[in-house]
Every structure is written in structure tokens, then in C-alpha cells.
Amino acid sequence: MANQDFLNEINKRRTFAIISHPDAGKTTITEKVLLYGNLLQKAGTVKGRGSGQHAKSDWMEMEKERGISVTTSVMQFPYRDALVNLLDTPGHEDFSEDTYRTLTAVDSCLMVIDAAKGVEDRTRKLMEVTRLRDTPIVTFMNKLDRDIRDPMELLDEVENELNIMCAPITWPIGCGKEFKGVYHLTRDEVILYQTGQGHTIQGVEVIKGIDNPLVEEKIGDGLAEILREELELVQGASNEFDQELFDSGDLTPVFFGTALGNFGVDHMLDGLTAWAPTPQPRKTNERIVESGEEKFSGFVFKIQANMDPKHRDRIAFMRICSGKYTKGMKMRHVRIGKDVAISDAVTFLAGDRSHADEAYPGDIIGLHNHGTIQIGDTFSQGEAFKFTGIPNFAPEMFRRIRLKDPLKQKQLLKGLVQLSEEGAVQVFRPLDSNDLIVGAVGVLQFDVVVARLKSEYKVDAIYESVSVATARWVTGDDAKKLDEFQRKVSTNLALDGGDNLTYIAPTMVNLNLAMERYPDIMFHKTREH
Ligand code: G4P
At which positions is GTP bound (predicted)? Predict the structure, then answer.
């Protein structure tokens, strides 16, 4: 039996990430959430907007120039009785593998939608990913201080396009210049919006009960009438919150507000901490691991270099799935079959690295990595299982990479293999040539790789175009057939950074033909680490 203190620690935890389309307000909401978590004194400092905090390394410099955040960081903070872990996901336009893998490390997601725009492309894609694990979703309709689309229509759009039922928890009263606040359906409260309070937390005015005459007095007869009409419609036509449907990812509670005006974010946090799941069981190749198990286990979902220029090491981000981490404890690095003592794991308090003496299921810890840890690695206490579901995606863009100085071939290869272990990019070495082909899922990855090769491995590399349309990892159950396949199509085969056999197709037609011709060979679009 696990002891009660341990279970209490687990039950306090809520680990989530934000999914949204660029510009919907993820960064702004993060700031406000941190304000409530007491991690920021004043909002406006996360992106380092003018604060100069961001000049960390060359490639971070690049992020700054482009106003994007390539890195994933983890922020832990208390909110009411809960302890919240917010995993930041890269915000740029590119499809990013890091984002996808981060979503494997959370128990719920906050979907932020720009209420003037509705459901956008990137949100659609990310929702597809959360569907793979039926992750519960909380929704925040942002930017109510602007003229937004009809709220009913927005809910319809979410329901139809994202195939999830909506249960409005708050309902907006006006928008834009006329934005007066929200009605909280479950609390039966009208909560009034005041402008000019975006940077700090201040008291709000709350009117108890929708039939309270103060409602007319405060928001005016016209808006009060519209509100009552809309509520009648909403209460008749939309779903009520249902914990089971939320847990299974079939229904999302919806909140309205403005992150910039710091209104509604606390309603959303109240809902999220009340309803979002505590650290959930995780699948391994052998069995399901429950978070309340006493033996420690976790998996690595991200590796990141140079978070701090003074520490030129790499940090492996591990999601703890069961047991308690204590400083100095021994863990089994399952893939290499070795026990390692971990004395200096780090946590990520709003961008600061600080030593963690203990951590619990749902928490993320950072391990110093000197090249032995890869994305997808499992750590345990003795058992040799492996957590599943941490994917690599077949790249969609390819370039041949070449050195300006040919003498540095070894460094280049080392750099590329290490960057591919981190998941920053994928590298392929064709079996029949000395080329190095870099594959990426988003175009930005190419720039990051060249910048990092230069700053971390001191090699100057350039790209050339290459006629590769797509790649598939190949496997076969029948060794003889696989062998024959390898001989016949050797010019199309390559090894990736982890020495896995890959089919490199110049065109989609070529790939389809190969798949037809070799039915015993399996062509995989994703590879599990
Ligand atoms: P992202 O991380 O999802 O990309 O979005 P971010 O928070 O950076 O917000 C994108 C833009 O939208 C920012 O404006 C931000 O100030 C604005 N924004 C966020 N929430 C709200 C809101 O509730 N109401 C309004 N009106 N605007 C909001 P920007 O001009 O691009 O940047 P900045 O000059 O404010 O830094």
C-alpha cells in the first residue's frame, strides 16, 4: 500500500499544456496563469519582451529575432489546493515534433482560441494528436475585448470541426468596447470586467444570481436582456459539463475571457484544477503503470541543449509516471540496462533552473545528459518495461547537408547524430553514398540545425537541394525477404541517426510502387523511440 502522503502529493498534481494557433494568445495566457501561480510579480515578462532575458545562445537569439519560442519549458506552481505543471509548447507556425511529444507527457490540455477567428489550422492538427490519447481538453475563448464572432457559432464550429462537445461554463456579456464580463453558469454569478487590470490581480465585482436587479444596473437593460435570451438558448441547446465525457476527451468545458485584460483566466484555472485528471496511468510494452505505484518510473520526451550558456550540457526532460524521485536515488536506464545515480536533477520554475530534491508523478524533472539519454528512454527501478507512444514522425522536407570545410566531416556527423537524438532534426545516411541528408518536419528546423552546428560543433554547413520526397522506416518479419528487399532497392535505402533502416523515396509514386512490389515489407510513417 502506498502511503497517504505520497498519494496526496499525486492527487494535487495537474500536468497540462496549451494548444493553440500562433497569435491566439498562448504566451499571454501563460503570463496570466503564472501571475496567479505567484511566479511573476507583473505580467509581460515571459517572452522577455524588452526584458533582455532571452539572449541565451545563438539559436535562442534566432528565436528572439523571429519572435518565436522554439524551446519547451516547464513551469510548476501552486494554485489553490493544486500543484500545476504547465508544459510550454513551441509556438511557431511549423509542425513541430517537440510539440507533439510534449503532448505525450501531459494529462490534459488547454485549448486557446482567438474568438475573433475561431478554429484555426494549427489547433486542428494539435487536437488530432490529443485524440490519440483521448486527452481531456479545457477551452478558453480569448480576446473578448475585441469584436468577436457570435459565441454560439463559435461553439458550433468547435463541435463540428473538432468533433468534441462543448459545455459552456461561462457566457460572455457583450464584446469589444461593450465587453462587460461573463455570467458563470454553474456559480450563477455575473462577474464584471474592468479594463486596465491586465498586469496584476485585482478584486472583481461579482453579482450573485442572474435575477438580481443589480445586473440591469451594472450592464444596462439592453445587454441584460440579450444575456437572458442567450442563456435560455444556451441552457436549452448546449451540453452541461459531464466529468466522464470530459475525462474521455468527448466534451470540453468552455470559458470566455481576455488574457490581455486578465479576465476569465482564473475561472478557467478553477475549472482546470477542479476537473482535469491527476497523473494518469501510462502504457508500457509490458503492462500499465499506475501513478500510485511506489517504484519510480518515467520517460524522456524531450532533450534540449544550452538552456544556460554556463552549462554547456544537455537536459533530458523526464515525465515521472510512478514513484517518488529523491535526490541521489538510483534508477535503471532501461535501454542500456544500467543503474545510474541521479544527484542533480533540475526543475523548471518559470525559466529558472533550480535543484529539485524530490518530485512526484506528473512532475517533470531535467536530467543532465552527456549523450547517453535519448528521447523515448524509460527509467525504472529494476523492471525492464518501456513506455510506449512517444513518436518520431517521418520528415516531410529534405536537404543534403554539406560542409564548407571538408576536413570537419567527423564533427558534422557527430553533431547531426546528437541533434537527431534530441529530436531537433533527423539525419539519413544513404547506404550507397557518403551523402548526409537532413530531414525535417518543419522548415524552421533546418535553420536551427545550421545555427547549432556552428555554435556547438564549430562546423559551417550549408544545404543543397536533394530529390527526396518522403521517407519511411522499413521493417520485415521475414529476414530473407528483407534481405532481398535490401539488395534490390539499396539505392533508396539509408540509415537514420539511430541506425534504423529507412526507405528514401524520390517521389510519392516511387514509394507507392515499392509498397506494392514488396508487400512483405512494412513501411512506417512514425517510429517509436
Ligand atoms: P501566441 O503566444 O499564441 O502566439 O500569442 P500571444 O500571447 O503572443 O498573443 C498574440 C497577440 O495577441 C499579442 O499581440 C497579444 O498581446 C495579443 N493578445 C493576447 N491576448 C489578447 C486579448 O485577450 N485581447 C487582445 N486584444 N489581444 C490579445 P501583439 O501585438 O502581437 O504582441 P505585443 O505587441 O502585445 O507583444
Answer: 20-27, 88-92, 142-145
